[in-house]
């Protein structure tokens, strides 16, 4: 690499919402003279899940450890610039009036739930919590979440609101992601998720529950084309876990194990309070589907 890591990524500014420096950085990427990614014989994907400002440590839905996760994944991308064929990144994207935000619900006194309130189907049936919008669909959603064995509905702080700085990809990660795109002549696959009002969408391939059974089949099919998939992102307990679960289940349905999929363990962190169940869930995925784990400094291509 002709361009130093420090020129692309300013470690001390990770998590700051600031104007990007792409007009300074991308001309340097043009000068790297790297092999175009489409000529790679071994195809590797870096899948980055929801590395957005609102999920950084001090954001409204901050994940403890996210800033360090960004530092490590940017170094990983820099150190393996010529081996990573493509980058796919997801952006959790919402509006205020969605089923997991406070303004959607009210109690018997008309008060909204505070963030991190858990709403059960029984509480909806008994009227402890009443939806202000889409009454029938809201009740159906909460009931089906529990029937499917998923998490109960959690009320989250307002986060990643469409068009706000909090919705944006973290700026220093954006610098190196777009540097890679220009240097390797590789188009970034940006996945916007989470705008449907009456469902949560932790995973990038399908919502938690949908009467239409929506599944992003084309995105899943794309994943089958890679020899290796490296996964990092926020939060390990929710969007990373569900995305990985959906992907390994799809691999299994196609008669393939997930031994080519590697979770970069030092580049993802859980929401506080979900640590134990998160580790158990990932261990189950490892035992059932062959999912692999590695630190970003120990990866072999």
The total of beta strands comes to 10
CATH-defined superfamily of the largest domain: Isochorismatase-like
Q: Report the CATH topology name of the largest domain.
A: Rossmann fold
Approximate shape: globular
Helix content range of the residues, please? 25-40%
Structural class: alpha/beta
Q: Helix count?
A: 9
Radius of gyration, whole Å: 20 Å
Would you tell me the overall average pLDDT? 96
Examine the secondary-structure arrangement and name the CATH architecture of the largest domain.
Answer: 3-Layer(aba) Sandwich
Number of domains: 2
Question: Biggest sheet: strands side by side, in what order?
Answer: 7-2-1-8-9-10
Which class of the largest domain in CATH terms?
Answer: Alpha Beta
Encode the helix/strand succession as letters. HHEHEEEHEHEHEHEHEHE
- DSSP strand (E) fraction? 5-15%
Give the CA-CA distance, first to last residue.
Answer: 18 Å
For the sheet with most strands, the description reads: 6 strands, parallel
Low-confidence stretches: none
């Amino acid at each position: 690499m002709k361009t130093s890591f420090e020129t692309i990524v300013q470690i001390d500014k990770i998590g700051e919402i600031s104007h990007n420096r792409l007009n300074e950085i991308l001309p340097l990427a043009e000068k790297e003279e790297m092999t175009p990614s489409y000529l790679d014989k071994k195809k590797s994907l870096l899948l980055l899940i929801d590395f957005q400002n609102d999920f950084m440590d001090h954001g409204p839905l901050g994940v403890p450890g996210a800033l360090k996760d960004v530092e490590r994944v940017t170094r990983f991308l820099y150190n393996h610039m010529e081996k990573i064929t493509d980058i796919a990144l997801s952006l959790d994207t919402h509006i205020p009036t969605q089923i997991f935000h406070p303004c959607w619900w009210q109690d018997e006194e008309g008060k909204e739930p505070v963030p991190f309130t858990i709403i059960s189907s029984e509480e909806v049936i008994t009227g402890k919590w009443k939806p202000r919008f889409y009454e029938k669909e809201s009740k159906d959603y909460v009931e089906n979440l529990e029937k499917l064995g998923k998490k109960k509905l959690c009320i989250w702080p307002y986060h990643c609101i469409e068009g706000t700085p909090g919705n944006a990809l973290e700026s220093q990660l954006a610098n190196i992601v777009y540097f890679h795109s220009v240097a390797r002549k590789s188009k970034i696959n940006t996945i916007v998720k989470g705008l449907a009002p009456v469902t949560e969408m932790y995973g990038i391939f399908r919502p938690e529950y949908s009467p239409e059974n929506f599944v992003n089949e084309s995105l899943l099919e794309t994943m089958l084309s890679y020899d290796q998939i490296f996964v990092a992102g926020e939060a390990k307990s929710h969007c990373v876990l569900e995305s990985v679960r959906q992907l390994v289940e799809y691999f299994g349905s196609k008669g393939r194990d997930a031994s080519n999929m590697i979770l970069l363990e030092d580049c993802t962190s859980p929401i506080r309070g979900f640590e134990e169940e998160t580790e158990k869930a990932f261990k189950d995925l490892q035992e059932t589907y062959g999912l692999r784990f590695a630190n970003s400094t120990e990866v072999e291509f």
